C-alpha cells in the first residue's frame, strides 16, 4: 500500500489527446538560424518572423517549446531585450504573455551536443555533429513552436573550426560560404520550401563524399551526394544506385519529381532509428546506407535499397505534404512504407517481397495489436510520441493504404494520389484528408473504411462454404469480428477487400476477383461452376486479418501446387506446417513421442525438386514457420516446446531429405562474382537454407562443408550464413573457431562486428546469457551506440526466446537492468528494448509473475523517462 501511495504522489506524465487539437496561435513565416559549434558548447541564434494565426480568434500568449537542457542566454522582440518578468518557463514551454500581432523574435541559446546521449536534437556521433529532430527533437536545439503544423522557410548558417569540420551541411541549397576568425569557417544554406522543424537538419564533420547527378523527367539536373567516413567511401555505390532508381520510379509511378537542386545523404554511426528524411539532407544510420559485397549480406543490401527509397519518397509523402499533428503519423509513414514496398517489389521479386512483409506483419505487428501497447493506426492519445513509431503506424498503416489500392485499382488510386498531392502541397494535413482525396477521385464512399484508422486490433475472418451440386452454385460465408484492445471493447465491422480465386481439383482456376466484406456476416455466391472448388482466400494478403477456413491437408496441398497466386501458394505451405507443428507442440507437452508424417516429406521433396520454381520461392516454402510466428499464434506461449518441436522437425526433414538438400546446395553454388540482384539472392537463399538443414543432420562431413563455405566465401551473405548456422547448430568448438576467425578478419568493420555480436546473442544455448554479459565488456561494444545495443541486448531479448525466457528469470532481470541503466541516457532505446517484457500476458503463470515483477521493479525507479513510464505503466495496467 505504502509503496503504491508513494508512486502516486510522484508526478506522473499526462497523456495528450487528439480531441484536444488546436491550430497554432502563431505562425513562423521565416526562421533564420546561426550555429556556432565549439568543442564544449554550441551557441544557437534564432531569428523568427512571427505572426498571429488569422485562423485563431482572440489574443493568446506565445508558447515556444524548449527542452529543460536549453540555456536561454537572451531573448528579444523587435530588438527589445526581454527581462525575466516578461516571460516564464516550465519543463516544456516558454510563455511570453504579451506579444504584438507581428514581430521578430530573437533568441540566443546555449546547448551541449557533446553531452547529448539521447541522440535527439543536436548531438555528436563519433567526431561529427549531426541532428535528429523528428518527432520533438528541435526543442532541444532552440525555443520554437516544435509542432508539425507550423511550417516555415529556413535559412541556416553553420560556423565551426575549418580543420575539424571541413564539411558543413544543412537543408536546401548552399548560398554563401567563407572564413571566420580563429581558423573557423561558415556555410549558409537556404531552403525555399516551408517545412516543420522536425525536418530540420545540420551536419558538421570531416567527411568523404560520393557524388553523382540525376536528370529529372522535366530535364533539371540534381546533384546527388552521399557523405560518410573516408574508409567507407567504397560502400556507397549501392545507396547511390538505389537513390537514382527511386527517383526514376517516383516519376514513373506517382508522377513526382524532386524539387531542390541538391539531394544529400549522410551516414552516421550513432542513430536511434534507421534513417531520417530531413528536407534535402537525409541522415542515415550507417546500417541502412553502407553496402559492399564483402561486408554486407543480401538482406542488408535490400534493406539499404528500401530505406534509401523510403526516405526519398518522403520528399512528397511527408515533406511537401506533412502531418497536422503526430496522431497523423501514419499519414506519412503508412503511405511511404506502401510506396517503398511497391518499389522494392518492382526492383526485385514481387511475391518474395510480399512474403517477407507479411511474415513480419503477422509475427510482430499482430503481436503488438494483441499486447498492452495496441493502438489504432491513428492513435487517440499518447504520453510520448517516440513510443508510437510502431509496426502498427508503419506496417499496418501501409496495409491500410494497400487496401485502398486494391479497392480502387492502380489507375484510380493514382488519380487519388495526384489529387492528394495537388490539393495539399505545402500543407500539414490528416489521414482523413488522404482518404477524402481517394474518395473524391473515385466517387466512392470510404466512411466505413476509415474504421481501419480508428479501431485497433487484428480482425478475425471466419469463412465457411456450401456447395449445391445440382445447380453448380458455390457460396462462401464470411464472418468478421475484432478482439477488444486497451480502451476499445466494442468494434464495428471493417470494410475489407478479400481477394480470392476458386481452384478446381485439376488446379485450373475457375474464377478470381475481390470480395468486399462490409458486414459482420456476408454470403457471396458463385454460379455455373462445374465442380466444388477449393477457395484460395485473401490472396496477396489483401487485408491485415487472421483468416480461418477449415482446410483439409489435401486442399492445402492442392493450393501449394496450383494456386495462381504466389503468395497463397506459400501461405498454403505455411498452413500445413503450422497445423503440424501445433499438433506436435501438444504432443510434446503431453510427453508423447514426436513423428514426422510421410506426406510432409513427400510434399517438401516435390517442392525441392521442382526446378521450374524460383529458388527464392523454394527457400521460403521450405523454411519452417519461425518460433516467433508460432508464439504469436499460440493461446499460451510455451517457449521451450515451440523450440523443441521446430528443432525436431528441422532435424527430421534434414535427415529424410539429406540427398536432396545436398543436391540443392550444389545446384545453387556458383562461381559467378557476387551480385545483389534478385536472382542471385534467391540462389544464395536456397543454398544457405540447404546448408542449415545439412548441418541439422549433425554430420561432421557436412560441418566441413560449412567451414569451407565460411573460408572460401567472397561475400558476407555466404560467410555470415555459415557462421551463424555452425554456431546455432550447437557445434561449440567449430563455432568458436569460426567466431575467432571472423573477429580477426572483421574487427575493423563496425557493421560486420554487429553481426558477430548478434550471432552470439541469438544463439539458443544455455550459456548464452553469460556470453552476452562477457561480450558487454568487449572493447568494440559501446552502450551509447544503439546499433551495438540492438546487436547484443535486443538480439538476446527478442531473438533468443529460449534463453530470454529461462525459468529462473535471469533473462528478464538482465533486460530490467539495462532498462534502468538506459532510462535517462537514451529513453527512446530503453522503451524500445522493453517490448519483450510487455508481452507477459501471453506466457504461462510462472513466467508472468517473473515478468511483471521485473516491470514493477522498473516502475518503482525514480525519475522514469516518459518513454519508459508509458510502456511500463500501460503494460501493467
Ligand atoms: N521519419 C523517421 C523516423 C524518425 C523517428 C524519430 N523518433 C524515419 C522514417 O520513417 O523514415
Ligand atoms: Zn518514414
TrEMBL record:
Peptidase M1 alanyl aminopeptidase Ig-like fold domain location: 457-549
Coiled coil: none
Gene Ontology molecular-function annotations: alanyl aminopeptidase activity; metallopeptidase activity; zinc ion binding
Uppermost EC category: hydrolase
Enzyme nomenclature, EC number: 3.4.11.2
UniProt keyword annotations, A-Z: Aminopeptidase, Hydrolase, Metal-binding, Metalloprotease, Protease, Zinc
Location of the Aminopeptidase N-like N-terminal domain: 111-199
GO BP term (any one): proteolysis
Domain spans labelled Peptidase M1 alanyl aminopeptidase C-terminal: 553-877
Domain Peptidase M1 membrane alanine aminopeptidase, first and last residues per copy: 242-452
Cofactor(s) this protein requires: Zn(2+)
Catalytic activities: Release of an N-terminal amino acid, Xaa-|-Yaa- from a peptide, amide or arylamide. Xaa is preferably Ala, but may be most amino acids including Pro (slow action). When a terminal hydrophobic residue is followed by a prolyl residue, the two may be released as an intact Xaa-Pro dipeptide
InterPro entries cross-referenced by the UniProt entry: Aminopeptidase_N-like_N, Aminopeptidase_N-like_N_sf, PepN_Ig-like_sf, Peptidase_M1, Peptidase_M1_dom, Peptidase_M1_pepN, Peptidase_M1_pepN_C, Peptidase_M1_pepN_C_sf
Function of the protein: Aminopeptidase N is involved in the degradation of intracellular peptides generated by protein breakdown during normal growth as well as in response to nutrient starvation.
Record-linked NCBIfam families: pepN_proteo
Family recorded in the similarity comment: Belongs to the peptidase M1 family.
Record's protein name: Aminopeptidase N
Amino acid at each position: 500500500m505504502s509503496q503504491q501511495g508513494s508512486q502516486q504522489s510522484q508526478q506522473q506524465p499526462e497523456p495528450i489527446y487528439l480531441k484536444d487539437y488546436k491550430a497554432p496561435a502563431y505562425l513562423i513565416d521565416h526562421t533564420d538560424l546561426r550555429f556556432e559549434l565549439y568543442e564544449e558548447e554550441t551557441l544557437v541564434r534564432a531569428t523568427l518572423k512571427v505572426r498571429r494565426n488569422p485562423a485563431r480568434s482572440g489574443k493568446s500568449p506565445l508558447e515556444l517549446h524548449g527542452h529543460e537542457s536549453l540555456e536561454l542566454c537572451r531573448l528579444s522582440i523587435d530588438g527589445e531585450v526581454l527581462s525575466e518578468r516578461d516571460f516564464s518557463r516550465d519543463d516544456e514551454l516558454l510563455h511570453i504573455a504579451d506579444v504584438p500581432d507581428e514581430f521578430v523574435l530573437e533568441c540566443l541559446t546555449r546547448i551541449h551536443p557533446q553531452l547529448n546521449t539521447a541522440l535527439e536534437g543536436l548531438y555528436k556521433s563519433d567526431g561529427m555533429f549531426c541532428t535528429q529532430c523528428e518527432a520533438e527533437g528541435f526543442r532541444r536545439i532552440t525555443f520554437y513552436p516544435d509542432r508539425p503544423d507550423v511550417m516555415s522557410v529556413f535559412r541556416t548558417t553553420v560556423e565551426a573550426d575549418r580543420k575539424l569540420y571541413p564539411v558543413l551541411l544543412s537543408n536546401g541549397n548552399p548560398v554563401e560560404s567563407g572564413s571566420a576568425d580563429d581558423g573557423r569557417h561558415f556555410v549558409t544554406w537556404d531552403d525555399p520550401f516551408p517545412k516543420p522543424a522536425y525536418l530540420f537538419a545540420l551536419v558538421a564533420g570531416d567527411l568523404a563524399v560520393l557524388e553523382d547527378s540525376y536528370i529529372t523527367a522535366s530535364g533539371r539536373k540534381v546533384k546527388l551526394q552521399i557523405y560518410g567516413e573516408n574508409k567507407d567511401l567504397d560502400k556507397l555505390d549501392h545507396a547511390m544506385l538505389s537513390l537514382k532508381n527511386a527517383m526514376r520510379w517516383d516519376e514513373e509511378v506517382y508522377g513526382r519529381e524532386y524539387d531542390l537542386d541538391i539531394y544529400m545523404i549522410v551516414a552516421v554511426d550513432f542513430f536511434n532509428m534507421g534513417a531520417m528524411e530531413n528536407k534535402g539532407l537525409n541522415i542515415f544510420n550507417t546500417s541502412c546506407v553502407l553496402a559492399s559485397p564483402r561486408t554486407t549480406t543480401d538482406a542488408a543490401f535490400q534493406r539499404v535499397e528500401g530505406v534509401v527509397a523510403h526516405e526519398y519518397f518522403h520528399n512528397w509523402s511527408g515533406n511537401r505534404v506533412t502531418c497536422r499533428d503526430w496522431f497523423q503519423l501514419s499519414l506519412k509513414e503508412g503511405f511511404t512504407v506502401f510506396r517503398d514496398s511497391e518499389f522494392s517489389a518492382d526492383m526485385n521479386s514481387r511475391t518474395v517481397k510480399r512474403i517477407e512483409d507479411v511474415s513480419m506483419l503477422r509475427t510482430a505487428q499482430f503481436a503488438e495489436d494483441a499486447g498492452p501497447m495496441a493502438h489504432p493506426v491513428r492513435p487517440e492519445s499518447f504520453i510520448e510520441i517516440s513510443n508510437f513509431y510502431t509496426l502498427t503506424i508503419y506496417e499496418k498503416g501501409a496495409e491500410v493504404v494497400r487496401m485502398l489500392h486494391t479497392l480502387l485499382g492502380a489507375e484510380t488510386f493514382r488519380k487519388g494520389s495526384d489529387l492528394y498531392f495537388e490539393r495539399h502541397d505545402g500543407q500539414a494535413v490528416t489521414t482523413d484528408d488522404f482518404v477524402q482525396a481517394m474518395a473524391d477521385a473515385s466517387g466512392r464512399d470510404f466512411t466505413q473504411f476509415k474504421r481501419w484508422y480508428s479501431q485497433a486490433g487484428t480482425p478475425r475472418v471466419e469463412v465457411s462454404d456450401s456447395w449445391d451440386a445440382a445447380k453448380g452454385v458455390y457460396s462462401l460465408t464470411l464472418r468478421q469480428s475484432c478482439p477488444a484492445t486497451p480502451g476499445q471493447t466494442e468494434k464495428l465491422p471493417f470494410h475489407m477487400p478479400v481477394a480470392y480465386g476458386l481452384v478446381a481439383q485439376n488446379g485450373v482456376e475457375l474464377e478470381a476477383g475481390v470480395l468486399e466484406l462490409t458486414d459482420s456476416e456476408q454470403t457471396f455466391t458463385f454460379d455455373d461452376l462445374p465442380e466444388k472448388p477449393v477457395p484460395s482466400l485473401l490472396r496477396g494478403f489483401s487485408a491485415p486479418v487472421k483468416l480461418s477456413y477449415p482446410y483439409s491437408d489435401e486442399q492445402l496441398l492442392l493450393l501449394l501446387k496450383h494456386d495462381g497466386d504466389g503468395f497463397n501458394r506459400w501461405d498454403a505451405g505455411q498452413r500445413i506446417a503450422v497445423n503440424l507443428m501445433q499438433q506436435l507442440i501438444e504432443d510434446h507437452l503431453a510427453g508423447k513421442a514426436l513423428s514426422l508424417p510421410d506426406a510432409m516429406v513427400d510434399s517438401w521433396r516435390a517442392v525441392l525438386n521442382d526446378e521450374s520454381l524460383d529458388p527464392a520461392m523454394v527457400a521460403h516454402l521450405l523454411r519452417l514457420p519461425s518460433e516467433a510466428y508460432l508464439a504469436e499464434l499460440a493461446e499460451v506461449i510455451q517457449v521451450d516446446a515451440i523450440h523443441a518441436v521446430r528443432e525436431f522437425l528441422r532435424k527430421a526433414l534434414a535427415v529424410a531429405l539429406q540427398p536432396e538438400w545436398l543436391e540443392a546446395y550444389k545446384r545453387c553454388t556458383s562461381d559467378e562474382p557476387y551480385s545483389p540482384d534478385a536472382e542471385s539472392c534467391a540462389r544464395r537463399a536456397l543454398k544457405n537454407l540447404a546448408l542449415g538443414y545439412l548441418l541439422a543432420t549433425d554430420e561432421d562431413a557436412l560441418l566441413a562443408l560449412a567451414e569451407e563455405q565460411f573460408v572460401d566465401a567472397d561475400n558476407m551473405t555466404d560467410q555470415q550464413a555459415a557462421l551463424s548456422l555452425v554456431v546455432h547448430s550447437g557445434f561449440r568448438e567449430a563455432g568458436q573457431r569460426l567466431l575467432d576467425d571472423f573477429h580477426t578478419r572483421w574487427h575493423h568493420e563496425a557493421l560486420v562486428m554487429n553481426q558477430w555480436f548478434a550471432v552470439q546473442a541469438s544463439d539458443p544455448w544455455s550459456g548464452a546469457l553469460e556470453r552476452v554479459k562477457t561480450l558487454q565488456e568487449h572493447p568494440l561494444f559501446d552502450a551509447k551506440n544503439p546499433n551495438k545495443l540492438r546487436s547484443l541486448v535486443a538480439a538476446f531479448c527478442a531473438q533468443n526466446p529460449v534463453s530470454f525466457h529461462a525459468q529462473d528469470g535471469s533473462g528478464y532481470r538482465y533486460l530490467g537492468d539495462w532498462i534502468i541503466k538506459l532510462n535517462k541516457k537514451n529513453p527512446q532505446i530503453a522503451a524500445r528494448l522493453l517490448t519483450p517484457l510487455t508481452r507477459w500476458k501471453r506466457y504461462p503463470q510462472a513466467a508472468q509473475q517473473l515478468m511483471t515483477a521485473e516491470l514493477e521493479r522498473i516502475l518503482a525507479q525514480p525519475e522514469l523517462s516518459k518513454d519508459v513510464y508509458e510502456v511500463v505503466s500501460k503494460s501493467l495496467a
